């Protein structure tokens, strides 16, 4: 892979350039488009960890994305410093902070309501219901698995290249540069090509989850062709992925502590076999100790992943690096892995989270029960009640359907009919999903 292709001002899906190929200007333009977009604003009411919580402290997808952008800058700066120490050329990286920030801001933009459990709710619904609708028998293998293996990462590409209404046009998405789009593509596999090895640690990194949907086959190929990363990850993906992991691990830890889900004593006991000296300062208050621990551990973690990126720079550029930047057996990695386990046990298995996730699941399940069958009937005749329900579907969703199904047979249109419902539901915030649910089902 070569940086002159990896980083360019070519936009997808229109393939035009800004200011004669000035990439710095192009990424500044991307940044403005993202921050001003309604798709980005919706992240302020989408779950990070605590669904439907109205506490003003906990993080949302918006604050999480901002924190990932901040950490990504720190990691890139550390990478540049490390490369300079080793007398490696940094010309390719020193102007790309804005590129990485843009990728951080959009990396969760396709996620449905209620966090990652929202993705699970969609998968479960299709697993339970796909065989109940004769129309779905016409779906090809990839189309079927797009729903059975639904993935927010793939929906992100759909939102950015098609669904976002840019300047009143619903045909071209947000018109971001291919470089920014490719920097959020963590996986390169179609939904029917996933690595299903029972040992998750042995799965091929790029085939662990769905990278793109059938509906975006062509636009995905265009992104990868433009950047020259066919079958590979864009190098910036590694830095974004590390920033994301670091951000959510430590923010989950901080939010869980503020919610009283564990104490400092619980954390020390759980980490006693892998704590690094002076991670906790005993003469301070518990809250100060927690903040010190988070700051010190976070700094050591992003310093390690930065060094790991430089250590494997040639492999990353060749597309032969087969793991993420958390590979190795250093003490800080053992501690970081243990922290993830701690968060799962003390936060995600807490009754408060589980009850909120169940509420979110029931809301999504009811919305899917309502709008998927309705979409399958479109544009056939509907009774009076169904017509009123159909009024919830935004007009630009129907415009998108007409564009994507032009010239297709009725059987081939089924996949896109389902998309009408899924796109509508995925675009909801937590609060709006709850409101629609209450409008329809409140007694």
From TrEMBL:
It holds the Pfam family HD. This is DGTPase. GO terms for molecular function: dGTPase activity. NCBIfam families: dGTP_triPase. PANTHER family: DEOXYGUANOSINETRIPHOSPHATE TRIPHOSPHOHYDROLASE, DEOXYNUCLEOSIDE TRIPHOSPHATE TRIPHOSPHOHYDROLASE. InterPro entries: dGTP_triP_hydro_central_sf, dGTP_triphosphohydrolase_C, dGTPase, dGTPase-like, HD/PDEase_dom, HD_domain. Gene3D superfamilies: eoxyguanosinetriphosphate triphosphohydrolase domain-like, Hypothetical protein af1432, putative deoxyguanosinetriphosphate triphosphohydrolase like domain. Keywords: Hydrolase. Its EC number is 3.1.5.1. Residues 61-249 form the HD domain.
């Amino acid at each position: 892979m070569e940086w002159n292709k990896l980083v360019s001002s070519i936009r997808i899906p229109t393939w035009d350039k800004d200011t004669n190929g000035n990439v710095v200007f192009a990424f500044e333009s991307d940044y403005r488009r993202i921050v001003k977009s309604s798709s980005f604003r919706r992240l302020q009411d989408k779950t990070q960890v605590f669904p439907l919580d109205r506490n003003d402290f906990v993080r949302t997808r918006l604050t999480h994305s901002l924190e990932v952008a901040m950490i990504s800058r720190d990691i890139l700066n550390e990478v540049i410093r490390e490369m300079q120490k080793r007398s490696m050329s940094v010309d390719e990286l020193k102007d790309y902070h804005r590129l990485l920030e843009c990728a951080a801001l959009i990396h969760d933009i396709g996620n449905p309501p209620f966090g990652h459990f929202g993705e699970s709710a969609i998968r479960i619904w299709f697993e339970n219901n796909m065989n109940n609708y004769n129309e779905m028998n016409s779906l090809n293998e990839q189309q079927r698995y797009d729903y059975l293996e639904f993935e927010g990462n793939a929906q992100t590409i759909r939102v950015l290249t098609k669904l976002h209404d840019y300047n009143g046009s619903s045909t071209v998405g947000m018109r971001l540069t291919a470089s920014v789009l490719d920097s959020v593509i963590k996986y390169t596999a179609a939904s029917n090509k996933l690595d299903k090895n029972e040992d998750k640690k042995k799965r091929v990194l790029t085939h662990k989850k769905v990278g793109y949907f059938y509906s975006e086959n062509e636009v995905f190929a265009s992104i990868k062709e433009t950047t020259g990363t066919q079958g590979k990850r864009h190098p910036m993906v590694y830095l974004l992925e590390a920033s994301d992991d670091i951000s959510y691990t430590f923010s989950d830890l901080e939010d869980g502590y503020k919610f009283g889900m564990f104490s400092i004593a619980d954390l020390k006991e759980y980490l006693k076999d892998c704590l690094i000296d002076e991670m906790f300062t005993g003469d301070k208050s518990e809250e100060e100790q927690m903040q010190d621990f988070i700051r010190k551990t976070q700094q050591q973690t992003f310093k390690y992943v930065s060094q790991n990126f430089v250590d494997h720079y040639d492999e990353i550029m060749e597309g032969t690096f087969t793991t993420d930047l958390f590979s190795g057996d250093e003490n800080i990695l053992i501690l970081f892995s243990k922290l993830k386990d701690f968060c799962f046990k003390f936060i995600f298995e807490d009754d408060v989270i589980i009850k909120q996730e169940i509420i979110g699941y029931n809301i999504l399940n009811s919305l899917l029960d309502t709008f998927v069958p309705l979409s399958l009937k479109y544009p056939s005749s509907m009774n009076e009640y169904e017509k009123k329900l159909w009024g919830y579907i935004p007009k630009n969703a129907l415009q998108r359907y007409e564009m994507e199904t032009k010239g297709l047979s009725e059987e081939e249109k089924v996949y896109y009919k389902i998309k009408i419902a899924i796109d509508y539901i995925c675009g909801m915030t937590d609060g709006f999903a709850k409101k629609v649910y209450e409008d329809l089902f409140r007694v």
